[in-house]
Design brief:
Length: about 280
C-alpha cells in the first residue's frame, strides 16, 4: 500500500492487495470529481451514492461528481486493489475550457459506472500502472506527470460508447430501504430521531431500525446524522455560517452540531469551512 500523493491540484491514492474490513461504512459529501478504479478484488464492492447502492466488480471504473453523498463498503473481509484520483472543481473547469467534450463527459451525471474489457482495459491499466509508480514519488515534476497520465485515462474513458450506469439487484436498494432513504433525503431537516421517522412512515421504531441495520450494515440513527452532517458540510463550503448550517439541517443547537461534526470529521465546522472554502 502506498501513501496518497497530493498537491494543491489533485490527489491520487493507489492501494495494492490490502484487506478491507467487512461492513465498514461511512458516508461523506464528495467535494471532488472522483475516478475510482476497482482493479482487483474478491467479490463486489458496494458503493452508496445519494439514494442508491451500486455494485462494483473488478474491472469497473466509477465516476463521481462533487456534491454527492457517498460511502463504500465490502460485505465480506477480502483483499482488493484500487486506484482513486480526485480532482477539484477548478481543475475540471480548466480541462473543460481546453476540451469541452471531456468536461461534458465528466459532468454528465452524478455517477457513472464503466466496464472495461479487452484492449481498452489493457490500455487503461497501463496508465494505472504509471500512476501507481508515480504515486510513490515526490519529485518536483511528479504532479504534472501524474496529471498528464490522468488526462490520457479520461480521454480513453470518454471515447467509450454509452457508459453503463449500473444498478443491479445485488446492489440496488429494496423497496423499504429506498423509501427510508428517500424520506430522509427530502425531510432530513424536519426529522430529529428515528422515532419521528418511524411515525412518518407508519412503522415501529424497532422494526424500522432492525430492518435498516440488517441490510445496510449501519444504524438508522447513524445514517440520519451522517446525512445531516454531509449536507451541513456542503453548506459550510458554500458560505453558510456554522449557526445557519446547524439549524437549516435540523440540529437542535449549535453546540450539539459542533460536537457531532467534530466527532465525524475530526475538526470543528469553522476550521472545516476555512480549509475548504
Amino acid at each position: 500500500m502506498s501513501k496518497p500523493h497530493s498537491d494543491r491540484n489533485f490527489l491520487v491514492q493507489y492501494r495494492d492487495n490490502v484487506t478491507s474490513r467487512a461492513g465498514k461504512f461511512r458516508l461523506e459529501t464528495n467535494n471532488f470529481y472522483e475516478v475510482y478504479t476497482y482493479i482487483y478484488g474478491e467479490g463486489p464492492y458496494f458503493y452508496f451514492v445519494n439514494d442508491r447502492i451500486y455494485s462494483l466488480e473488478p474491472g469497473c471504473v466509477l465516476l463521481l461528481r462533487p456534491g454527492v453523498l457517498v460511502g463504500g463498503c465490502k460485505k465480506i473481509e477480502a483483499r482488493y486493489t484500487r486506484l482513486v484520483c480526485k480532482m477539484p472543481v477548478y481543475m475540471v473547469e480548466l480541462l473543460e475550457s481546453v476540451s469541452p467534450a471531456l468536461g461534458a463527459f465528466l459532468s454528465d451525471s452524478d455517477v457513472s459506472i464503466l466496464r472495461l474489457e479487452g484492449e481498452v482495459q489493457k490500455e487503461y491499466y497501463s496508465y494505472v500502472e504509471e500512476l501507481a509508480k508515480l504515486s510513490k514519488k515526490n519529485g518536483r515534476h511528479t504532479g504534472a506527470l501524474m496529471l498528464s497520465v490522468l488526462i490520457k485515462m479520461l480521454v480513453l474513458l470518454s471515447r467509450l460508447q454509452s457508459p453503463e450506469q449500473t444498478e443491479r439487484a445485488a446492489g440496488g436498494t429494496d423497496g423499504l430501504i429506498g423509501r427510508i432513504i428517500s424520506e430522509i433525503n427530502s425531510e432530513y431537516a424536519e426529522i430529529s430521531t428515528v422515532e419521528e421517522l418511524a411515525r412518518r412512515m407508519n412503522y415501529s421504531k424497532n422494526y424500522l431500525s432492525q430492518y435498516f441495520k440488517s441490510r445496510m450494515n449501519m444504524g438508522l440513527h447513524d445514517f440520519l446524522i451522517m446525512k445531516k452532517l454531509s449536507v451541513a458540510a456542503a453548506k459550510l463550503i458554500s458560505g453558510k455560517s456554522v449557526t445557519e448550517a446547524a439549524f437549516e439541517c435540523g440540529f437542535g443547537s449549535t453546540a450539539y452540531f459542533i460536537s457531532l461534526f467534530k466527532a465525524h470529521y475530526g475538526t470543528t465546522p469553522g476550521k472545516y469551512m476555512s480549509e475548504n472554502s
